[in-house]
């Protein structure tokens, strides 16, 4: 992951080298050579995705600098919100990476506290997925909507026992497909409360700058450009659903019709096609 960017762009090399110094381990080697089981750990995958996303941004700066100048807003899905804030000028690369590193460590620790997970449910509407949660959850357990990605694509998150019951409950309501996500725990639920407390300690000492363009927050799907907003929004994001579909609709409603996806994969382009087929989305990968 990120190897071709590293080989082609001196600016991307500098990002990886700086990341190695901040993190205290060779992130570049881990991204390029693995092993995959180590790269997929939350404590490693979050810094890896953050750095690779910003390395992809260097590709745009090199090929289409006018696109950077014309960009009028940004958004990022879950962890991607940190890259969006950096792009918008709210954080520098190093401070953003330190936050991401602590976020990954805190989320991994919170996941270790309680067996939990996330399950993707395809083909059902929000009300139906909420019924699934009510049916699969028993007293004392947590199971709730965690990611609202696009029409018919919703992720639920919670205690492992509840997640184990999701498939049966969703099939009864006619779900097209149900699959468990390969994540450490129940992200974007109250089970991340301890991670929220840990991240709060770091955010209090982190300096944010004035944003040059607004960022649409996962938490409320609204445009934000005030420095103080994001210290709270990034905290709330850990325990709140990611409202991605609404975030994209907020941009569309304001007249945005051209989007650029950075980082590994092309998931966001696929989601956008389900939200609005007429929107243009260019994928900037390796």
Tell me what you see in this structure.
The strands form three sheets. A four-stranded antiparallel sheet has the order 3-4-2-5. Strands 1-6-7 form a three-stranded mixed sheet. The mean pLDDT is 95. By secondary structure, the chain is α/β, with parallel strands linked by helices. It has helices at 3-8, 10-23, 27-33, 36-39, 42-63, 65-70, 80-87, 93-113, 126-136, 160-172, 193-203, 227-239, 244-253, 267-275; strands at residues 74-75, 116-122, 143-150, 153-159, 177-180, 215-216, 223-224, 258-262, 280-284. The chain is globular. It is 54% helix and 15% strand. A hairpin with a 2-residue loop joins β3 and β4.
Helices, strands, pairings?
Layout: H1 3-8, H2 10-23, H3 27-33, H4 36-39, H5 42-63, H6 65-70, E1 74-75, H7 80-87, H8 93-113, E2 116-122, H9 126-136, E3 143-150, E4 153-159, H10 160-172, E5 177-180, H11 193-203, E6 215-216, E7 223-224, H12 227-239, H13 244-253, E8 258-262, H14 267-275, E9 280-284
Parallel strand pairs: 1-6, 8-9
Antiparallel strand pairs: 2-4, 2-5, 3-4, 6-7
Helix pairs in contact: 2-5, 2-8, 5-7, 5-8, 8-11, 9-10, 11-12
Q: Characteristics of this structure?
A:
14 helices, 286 residues, three-stranded mixed sheet, 15% strand, alpha/beta, four-stranded antiparallel sheet
Give, in order, the helices and strands: HHHHHHEHHEHEEHEHEEHHEHE
Number of helices: 14
Give the oligomer, counting copies of the same chain as homo and different chains as hetero.
single chain
Structural class: alpha/beta
Order of the strands making up the biggest sheet? 3-4-2-5
Radius of gyration: 19 Å
- Mean residue pLDDT: 95
For the sheet with most strands, the description reads: 4 strands, antiparallel
Shape: globular
End-to-end Cα distance, whole Å, is: 8 Å
Strand content: 5-15%
Number of strands: 9
Share in helix: 40-55%
Runs with pLDDT <50, length 5+? none
């Amino acid at each position: 992951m990120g190897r071709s960017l590293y080989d082609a762009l001196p600016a991307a090399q500098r990002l990886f080298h700086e990341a190695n110094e901040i993190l205290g381990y060779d992130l570049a080697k881990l991204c390029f050579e693995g092993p995959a089981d180590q790269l997929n750990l939350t404590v490693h995958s979050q810094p890896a995705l953050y750095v690779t996303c910003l390395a992809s941004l260097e590709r745009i700066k090199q090929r289409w600098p006018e696109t950077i100048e014309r960009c009028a807003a940004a958004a990022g899905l879950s962890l991607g919100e940190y890259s969006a804030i950096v792009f918008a000028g709210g954080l520098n690369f190093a401070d953003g990476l330190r936050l991401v590193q602590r976020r990954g460590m805190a989320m991994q620790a919170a996941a270790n506290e309680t067996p939990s997970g996330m399950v993707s449910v395809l083909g059902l509407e929000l009300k139906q997925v909420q019924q699934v949660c009510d049916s699969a959850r028993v007293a004392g357990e947590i199971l709730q909507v965690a990611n609202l990605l696009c029409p018919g694509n919703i992720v639920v998150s919670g205690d492992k026992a509840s997640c184990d019951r999701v498939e049966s409950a969703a099939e009864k309501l006619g779900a097209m497909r149900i699959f468990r996500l390969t994540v450490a725990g129940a992200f974007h639920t109250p089970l991340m409360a301890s991670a929220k407390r840990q991240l709060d300690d770091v955010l209090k000492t982190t300096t944010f700058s004035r944003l040059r363009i607004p960022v649409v927050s996962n938490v409320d799907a609204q445009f934000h450009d005030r420095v103080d907003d994001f210290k709270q929004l990034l905290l709330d994001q850990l325990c709140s659903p990611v409202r991605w579909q609404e975030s994209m609709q907020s941009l569309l409603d304001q007249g945005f019709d051209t989007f650029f996806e950075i980082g590994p994969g092309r998931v966001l382009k696929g989601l956008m096609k389900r939200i609005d087929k007429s929107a243009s989305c260019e994928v900037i990968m390796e």
